[in-house]
């Protein structure tokens, strides 16, 4: 506190605003994930090497029975410690997703918690990738698609181990982020990968919308009309506005290929479903609406 209370009263709220507005997470760089995975592996191997040395010394009688007991305690402590550390980190990462999916999303709280998770060390590779998947989810929900695409690509480039079940969600985020940043040509690979996975119904519906967006973005409207009946049937499982979005995209494809009657029918259905040409619900919102339905 200074001798001027009025000035302090004016300065302190500004300082608090700056601390709240400051982004608690730095911009992602691919080298960061490589560095953290390498450091995690080094710590685990160093600990394992130390345990092996202790067990080897105890096995030859070094230090007597007490040293053998000490070596045994170290082995158990290392095993339990690493297991607890990784289980807690994985659980904490999953617990952040509801903060992002709330309306309005609690971005500041989730970013602050994620920053703490990123600082943990000696994690297994799949646990570290799970944390980075949450980071990608936050950036995707914030509309920071260029960074989200980099995060998703970095996660997918590595074996995900027990986190493999999250691969479809990461691929879907990657495709949407690439489309949002005007890079549809790069979305082909992730879309092919999605085609080879067993998807849940909400994921299949998200893939349908992204596939249509991709086909229109690369100037292939005829491809968007392949299996039209099946696509319309799947779209009808979506919430009304998202269903209208699919019909509007199909109508656009029909118009581009000269199928005016089909385009008029699809456009009329889109309007009946309340599609106004605005921004459709985000994929995670579509999934929640479908789950409630």
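Q: What amino acid sequence fits the structure above?
A:
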């Amino acid at each position: 506190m200074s001798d001027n209370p009025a000035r302090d009263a004016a300065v302190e709220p500004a300082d608090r605003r700056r601390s709240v507005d400051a982004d608690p997470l730095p911009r992602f760089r691919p080298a960061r994930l490589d560095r953290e995975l390498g450091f995690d592996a080094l710590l685990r191997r160093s600990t394992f090497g130390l345990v092996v040395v202790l067990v080897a010394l105890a096995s030859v009688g070094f230090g007597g029975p007490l040293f053998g007991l000490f070596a045994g305690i170290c082995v158990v402590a290392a095993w339990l410690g690493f297991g607890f550390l990784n289980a807690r980190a994985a659980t904490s990462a999953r617990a952040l997703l509801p903060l992002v999916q709330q309306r309005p999303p609690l971005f500041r709280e989730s970013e602050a918690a994620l920053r703490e998770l990123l600082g943990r060390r000696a994690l297994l590779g799949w646990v570290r990738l799970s944390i980075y998947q949450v980071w990608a989810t936050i950036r995707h929900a914030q509309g920071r698609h260029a960074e989200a695409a980099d995060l998703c690509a970095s996660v997918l480039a590595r074996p995900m181990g027990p986190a493999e079940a999250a691969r479809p969600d990461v691929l879907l985020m990657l495709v949407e982020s690439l489309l949002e940043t005007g890079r549809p040509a790069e979305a082909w690979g992730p879309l092919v990968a999605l085609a080879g996975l067993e998807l849940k119904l909400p994921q299949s519906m998200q893939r349908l919308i992204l596939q249509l967006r991709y086909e229109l973005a690369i100037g292939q409207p005829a491809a968007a009309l392949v299996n039209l009946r099946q696509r319309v049937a799947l779209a009808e499982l979506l919430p009304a506005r998202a269903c209208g979005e699919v019909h509007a995209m199909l109508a656009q494809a029909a118009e581009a290929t000269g199928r005016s009657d089909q385009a008029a029918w699809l456009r009329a259905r889109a309007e009946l479903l309340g599609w106004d040409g605005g921004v459709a619900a985000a994929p995670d919102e579509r999934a929640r609406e479908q789950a409630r339905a």
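Q: And what stands out in the fold?
A: Residues 200 and 292 are 15 Å apart (CA to CA).
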